[in-house]
Amino acid sequence: MQVNVALEWFLNPDHLPFLVADEDGLFARAGLSVTLVPPHGHYDGLAEVEAGRIAFACNEPLHMLDAPRPGLRALGCFFETEGGIMLTPEGERRLLAGEPIHLASPVSAEPTNAIAREILRRHVEAKGGRFRATEVNIAEAGFQHLENLRRGFDGAWLCFHNFEVVGAIAEGVPHIFVSTAAVGLPNFSALELFTSHAFAAREPGAVFAMQEALTEAIALIRHDPERAGAIWQKRSGEKESPLLRAIVADTVPRFIAPVRPDPQRWLTLFETFSDMGFAAISAQDYYNLYA
Questions:
Q1: Does the N terminus or the C terminus of the chain have fewer Cβ atoms within 10 A?
Q2: pLDDT higher than threshold 90 for residue 244
Q3: CA distances (Å), 98 to each of 84, 92, 114, 129, 133, in order?
Q4: Are 135 and 115 within one domain?
């Protein structure tokens, strides 16, 4: 069966389980021919799955909460890292001084922007400052966070530790990383696999085969990280470099198996954000993702 998997942004080492499963014939053995589809916009894959045009998508669990998505079914988290906002030193100075700052983000919409401002509010107040929400401007500027910082943005929102933070350290980019954990919020920087309720009902075998192939691929990645890095080089065309080695080394331990739906995994996130007014879905909507 030919199936497409919509990514949440450009192909990167977070997606290694898909590449290893394909390279090692795990998809073929399960009867699947898999194509990975990078999006134009961050939400594109979720919308395509809901509409029945794509079989699977991966995206952050945050986007399970920021809008009702009744057509989706969660299939399991396969990757989790620390995430949050990366500021330049000058951006942090401006933030603490109450001056205007500009954040780059893959998306610019509520309630996602409100969560970014809450992270910054807690960061500022922990340092004894006074936070001015109206001075934080968030612009949709794509997925290249470090490049956006070099272009003059004061910070970048929805950054992953294993990619942006490791990259900033390796490339000597001055930064301050404000993670959700550092400000006392539940983590949501992870990748969950989704399908539609309709596809799951119509093709349960394909759904199970995808979960099993990814689970086996993650075991292979953990067993031989160097080979996983070589597969990434081969499939991405990226040249071997100290940066690549550092990103892969940080990423490998963060893969999660078995890939299975777990409504308890993000329940604290849902309840916390509901209490804070950041969740745009009901408890029933949340549990319907796992039905």
A1: C
A2: no
A3: 20, 10, 17, 8, 9
A4: yes
